[in-house]
Design a protein that fits this description.
Blueprint: H1 2-15, H2 22-45, E1 50-51, E2 60-61, H3 67-89
Antiparallel strand pairs: 1-2
Helix pairs in contact: 2-3
Amino acid sequence: MYGEFMSFSTEMVAADRWRMLYMPIFVVILVLFLLIVSLELRSLWSSAPIYFSTQYVFYQFTPGGTTFWSVVVFIQAVWGLTFIKEACKSRYI
């Protein structure tokens, strides 16, 4: 069974050598996209105002109402991952 996969992959690479670039390009785009989404969430979740109370040892965060924007960023992440997948399948990249 593995021999069939190896022969098919050898034929595919031999037919079009530029396809070998799709995998590193896909990985780079995926890593950059995940980095951007993680930085968006980090900046969003750290946007709450900080105050110090004498009752607590540590600084306290007031709820910033970031739930709506977190949901929007997660929808953006799903949408972006779907676009990257379809772009790589359709040879747009």
